[in-house]
Amino acid sequence: MAEYHITVRIISSLLALSVALTPPAVAQGLPELGDAAQLTLTPQMERRVGESIMRDIRMHDPAFDDDPEATAYLNVLGNRLVSNSADVRQDFEFFLVNDPTLNAFALPGGYVGVNTGTIISAQSESELAAVLAHEIAHVTQRHMARMVSKEGQLSMAMLASMALAILSRNSQLGSAAAAIGQASAITAQIGFTREFEREADRLGFLTLEKSGFDVRAMPAFFLRLQKAGRLYENNAPAYLRTHPVTTERIADAENRIQGLSYKQTPDSLDFQLVRAKLRADQGTSRDAVAQLEGDLRDKKFSNEIAARYGLAVALLRAKDPARAEAELAPLMKTTEHPMFAGLAARIKQAKGNSQGAADVLKQALARYPNDRALNYAYIEALQQQGKNRDAAALLDEQLKNYPRDARLYGLQAKAYASLGKRLLQHQAQAEAYVLQGSLPAAIEQLQLAQKSGDGDFYELSSVDARLRKLRLQLAEEMKEAKEKK
Length: 485
Description:
Elements: H1 2-21, H2 24-27, H3 43-60, E1 64-65, H4 68-82, E2 93-97, E3 104-107, E4 111-115, H5 116-121, H6 125-140, H7 143-149, H8 156-167, H9 171-179, H10 183-210, H11 217-232, H12 238-242, H13 247-257, H14 269-280, H15 285-297, H16 304-317, H17 321-334, H18 338-350, H19 354-367, H20 372-384, H21 388-401, H22 406-418, H23 422-436, H24 439-450, H25 457-484
Helix pairs in contact: 1-3, 1-8, 4-6, 6-10, 6-11, 8-9, 10-13, 11-13, 14-16, 15-16, 16-17, 16-18, 17-18, 18-19, 19-20, 20-21, 20-22, 21-22, 22-23, 23-24, 24-25
């Protein structure tokens, strides 16, 4: 149901844009005499639509996965590709969707979603990079905006079917997209999409090559997808429905690698560990342990360190911290990695040793001071021990580096609440809500901060100023929404 409501929100946003972009002459049934190029979806409008969709995903979609380790890796990989892409005019944010099927999708404004199943299914980091490079090209070439501005307008049926196609993660929504509107509109959309797919393939290939990945991963991935499509018949993964793999696309990809010298590109340990962690979180904990133990026994792995780490994750998930610790200990003696420290701390917490968990995290942060997952975990460990002043000090430091991190503001609100600082608590919670896209909740928190009775003149002045700004912002958004109806 969450996916349904998100899709409805996308359709509503796009339909509002359609009305805004339709010139008066067209709206009245008269011939259009103006320049169609003026009827474009601007980057600012794209960003607003993207932010609106992301608010709903973060707040209402249970499939949204905010795992800090996997998300951090995804953004490091994605931004490496973005830095080597052409025509980049906006920031990108890559986010994880907890779904075992193979899918990735680009939203307006630089937001790119990747299913956990895509990472698990990738047989190399270059394959995952090929998927991301393709989606990045959809954004940089502004394919959404070009669809909206095609011939100066886009019908409601086209907008609805396009919106559904973006987030169709199951066969029901896939068939719903085909059922909406007139057949001619859908046919036109498919033809237009194929043009964009070719462009995204071509630019994605160049990005992949410039970023130092194995470009042979792209045709190899296409071939595997095509083979999988034959097996799925009418219940193909969403990625195959929204990004149909044709013989032409495979041939184009294979032609691009002709004459290129072979370049072996090893997978990063980060990729291997994140993939192993996501595998360990699939299915039941019992099945995950059995599967990973079997892979190790039969030597069915590409990286033994990652395979053993994955087993340790699965064992902890199965509530067997002693075995998890025994599996992880040898790895920590031979290899340093922040994800090992994070798992070691979680194991100690599971064994009731909160001080030991905090010590592990503190030592790891000395080596990896900017690792966000370790900082989150250490702050939470300090709070669990009642060391809220230490936690608040660390939060102040982190928020200077990451001022748009809603998770940090939520932790800060918790720290201030434990210290009895009610004004600062509500002020921090308000900022968390702002970043999550809920202005009414943020305004309510600032009103509570005004009434807290424990703030000094400067703190109250700051709250008053922020409250005025947010009220004005909310009023403008409500006015804009009313005008679009």
